[in-house]
């Protein structure tokens, strides 16, 4: 029962532990692996070191597990072993060397399952002293030397150095503990040499001490080159030279070469003797060399020959120093001569290339300058020696042309402006002088192809014509320009704003003219403004000093304050005074308003008169009625035949009675139907007709 529980527990844990292998017959897990270095990670050279790899493995079953151990130094495998036991793996490093220094770790592999240990670093200190050995200690000049440098007991990659003092003679990288090399000394005498080495353990390296110092004696060979030059007296140009290069103490002629040279120029070569002849020239180097080469040995014999000039290199000069086109000039060619060997008459001068200049004397040539630049060279010849001067370039100057005078930009009265003066043709430098009238105002020297600019200020327009310009380029001719002819811009002044029609006469429907006028040089840009608005009402440019802005069909909305501004090329803005415009009513509107007002006044007058008259009558009637006793009136109505009419009786504006009258059909009818109805006034009774009246309460009738 316990075994079953153990098996079940192991099976369950295998799902959560990556180091467990489960199959039908066995179960195992790699629990840990460690690497250790014994006796220490830091040891000295010669210590016996052991690298131990220990693994802890848990298993179930009877089968023996095969373990594969691998030990690494850095990334390189240094040891591998298979084991079927649980014992630790030991990797011995007997008599450790610096080359064993490095980082180690181990790995275990069981049936494909692996685990790595942590890294441990081993450091081994101490290097053996190198040993230098030479095949012998005495050598002849040019003989080859064999040297061997050994690092006793060292292993790994070793870099060797062979030194003479601080100079490295040879160096090389090997995988053994010794280094062999061959070399030669170029100098005779005693030489001290030593060696040392470096053990390379990536990424580190360790340098050894220096080896023993060995002395090497290099003996000179008795063979020598010999250089002879004839004649051995003072040598002049043109003298023949014989040069001989030979060997002294020649033991055997094998593998020997001679080389004869002048400066860097090789003249001749041979085995045992070289002979060469030349003409002495002062222009060529006087250094001669005889060089002997035998194997790796080279010996040199050298001499310097001084050659005296028969005549010096000629110099070519011109007079005058500056010449203008087609003017006369003189070229002079001259050399210094060795009078003890050469007469001046033997020296001949010529010019190259051919030119129209005429020889006046030995080395003197005269004629007119050409219209273009020309290169002249003087050639001097004597006794087969030819020498040439440096090239002289004659650049005939061009006389300056009549300058042109103009205004740079614009000329504004009272403001500084520039006057431009320039000639189309003329060699530089050119001196330009500005004159006003005939007074010099200033001079400008121009060394580049550009105009001269003078700054002036004028106060009157006519002053502009007083300016002239003079040009000169070191020649007797100094042409004068014409007088300056340019437009002078007068700044604007006195801007006025005129209104048409006159201010008191401006009415609705009129055509308004706002006329701006000023003094100054046109074109003039005018702008009209209305106070209260930033933007101008109108802008125009005129070629005159005045112009207008028209407003047709005026209305009351055009009333306001106006002004204008003006500017010309002087860029000074002038402003007029402000003008206030009031647009009056049109004439016909005034007439209508006058008529209406007159009519209203008339109606008011008539109404007032009638009102006062009516009031007066009412006052009188009120006074009469108030004096009588109260009377009750009864309206008596008589039958009225058709066609009767009531005739009112008025007092003032009040009706006091009315009478019905028949129309005039016949005189006999009025007594039948005629009746009078009235109100009693002043105590009088109404008159009653023949028919009895019909009494109604319509009109008041007095009651007794």
From TrEMBL:
Segments passing through the bilayer: 591-612
Q: In what ranges is there compositional bias, type Basic and acidic residues? A: 687-697
Checking Gene3D superfamilies in the record gives: Immunoglobulins (2.60.40.10)
Report any one BP term from Gene Ontology: cell-cell adhesion via plasma-membrane adhesion molecules
Keywords, A to Z?
Disulfide bond, Glycoprotein, Membrane, Signal, Transmembrane, Transmembrane helix
Q: Where is the signal peptide?
A: 1-21
Checking InterPro entries in the record gives:
Ig-like_dom (IPR007110), Ig-like_dom_sf (IPR036179), Ig-like_fold (IPR013783), Ig_Fc_receptor (IPR050488), Ig_sub (IPR003599), Ig_sub2 (IPR003598), IL-40-like_Ig (IPR040878)
Gene Ontology terms: cellular component: external side of plasma membrane
What molecular functions are annotated in GO for this chain?
transmembrane signaling receptor activity
**What ranges does the record give for the region Disordered, renumbered to this chain?**
684-704
Annotated Ig-like domain ranges read 491-580
Quote any Pfam family the record assigns: Ig_3
Return the CDD domains for the record.
Ig (cd00096)
Q: Which SUPFAM superfamilies match?
A: Immunoglobulin
Its protein name is Platelet endothelial cell adhesion molecule isoform X2
Organism ancestry:
Eukaryota, Metazoa, Chordata, Craniata, Vertebrata
């Amino acid at each position: 029962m316990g075994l079953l529980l153990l098996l079940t527990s192991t099976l369950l844990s295998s799902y959560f532990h990556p180091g467990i292998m489960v199959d039908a017959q066995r179960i195992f897990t790699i629990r840990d692996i460690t690497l250790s270095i014994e006796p220490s990670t830091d040891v000295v050279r010669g210590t016996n070191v052991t690298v131990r790899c220990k693994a802890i493995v848990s298993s179930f079953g009877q089968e023996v597990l095969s373990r594969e151990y691998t030990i690494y130094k850095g990334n390189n495998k240094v040891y591998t072993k298979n084991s079927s036991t649980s014992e630790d793996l030991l990797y011995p490093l007997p008599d450790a060397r610096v080359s064993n220094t490095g980082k180690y770790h181990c790995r275990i592999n069981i049936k494909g399952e692996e685990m790595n240990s942590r890294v441990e670093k081993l450091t081994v200190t101490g290097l053996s002293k190198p040993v230098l050995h030479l095949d012998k200690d005495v050598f002849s000049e040019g003989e080859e030397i064999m040297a061997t440098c050994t690092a006793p007991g060292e292993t790994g990659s070793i870099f060797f150095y062979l030194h003479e003092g601080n100079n490295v003679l040879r160096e090389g990288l090997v995988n053994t503990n010794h280094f062999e090399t061959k070399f030669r000394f170029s100098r005779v005498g005693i030489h001290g040499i030593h060696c040392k080495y470096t053990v390379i353990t990536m990424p580190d390296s360790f340098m050894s001490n220096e080896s023993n110092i060995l002395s090497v004696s290099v003996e000179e060979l008795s063979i020598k080159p010999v250089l002879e030059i004839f004649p051995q007296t003072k040598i002049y140009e043109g003298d023949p030279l014989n040069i001989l290069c030979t060997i002294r103490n020649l033991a055997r002629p094998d593998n020997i070469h001679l080389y004869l040279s002048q400066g860097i120029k090789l003249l001749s070569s041979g085995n045992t003797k070289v002979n060469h002849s030349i003409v002495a020239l002062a222009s060529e180097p006087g250094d001669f060399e005889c060089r002997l080469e035998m194997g790796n040995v080279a010996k040199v014999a050298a001499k310097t020959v001084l050659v005296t000039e028969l005549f010096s290199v000629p110099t070519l000069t011109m007079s005058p120093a500056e010449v203008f086109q087609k003017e006369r000039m003189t070229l002079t060619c001259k050399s210094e001569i060795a009078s003890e060997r050469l007469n001046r008459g033997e020296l001949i001068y010529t010019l190259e290339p051919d030119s129209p200049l005429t020889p006046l004397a030995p080395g003197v040539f005269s004629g007119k300058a050409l219209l273009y630049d020309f290169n002249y060279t003087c050639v001097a010849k004597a006794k087969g020696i030819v020498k040439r001067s440096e090239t002289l370039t004659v650049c005939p100057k061009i006389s300056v042309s009549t300058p042109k005078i103009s205004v740079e930009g614009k000329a504004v009265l009272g403001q500084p402006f520039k006057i431009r003066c320039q000639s189309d043709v003329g060699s530089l430098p050119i001196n330009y002088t500005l004159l006003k009238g005939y007074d010099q105002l200033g001079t400008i020297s121009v060394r580049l192809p550009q105009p001269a600019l003078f700054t002036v200020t004028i106060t009157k327009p006519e002053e502009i014509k007083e300016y002239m310009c003079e040009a000169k380029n070191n020649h007797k001719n100094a042409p004068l320009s014409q007088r300056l002819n340019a437009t002078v811009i007068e700044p604007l002044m006195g801007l006025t704003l005129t209104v048409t029609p006159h201010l008191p006469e401006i009415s609705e429907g009129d055509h308004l003219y706002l006329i701006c006028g000023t003094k100054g040089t046109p074109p003039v840009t005018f702008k009209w403004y209305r106070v209260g608005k930033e933007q101008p009402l109108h802008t125009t440019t005129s070629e005159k000093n005045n112009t207008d802005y028209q407003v047709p069909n005026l209305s009351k909305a055009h009333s306001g304050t106006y002004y204008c501004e003006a500017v010309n090329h002087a860029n000074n803005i002038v402003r007029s005074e402000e003008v206030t415009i009031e647009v009056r009513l049109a004439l016909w509107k005034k007439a209508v308003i006058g008529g209406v007002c007159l009519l209203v006044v008339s109606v008011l007058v008539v109404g007032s008169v009638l009102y006062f008259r009516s009031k007066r009558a009412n006052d009188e009637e009120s006074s009469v009625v108030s004096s009588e006793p109260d009377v009750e009136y009864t309206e008596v109505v008589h039958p009225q035949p058709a066609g009767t009419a009531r005739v009112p009786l008025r007092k003032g504006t009040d009706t006091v009675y009315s009478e019905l009258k028949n129309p005039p059909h016949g005189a006999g009818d009025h007594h039948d139907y005629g009746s009078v109805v009235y109100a009693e006034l002043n105590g009088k009774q109404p008159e009653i007709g023949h028919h009895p009246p019909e009494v109604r309460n319509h009109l008041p009738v007095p009651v007794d």
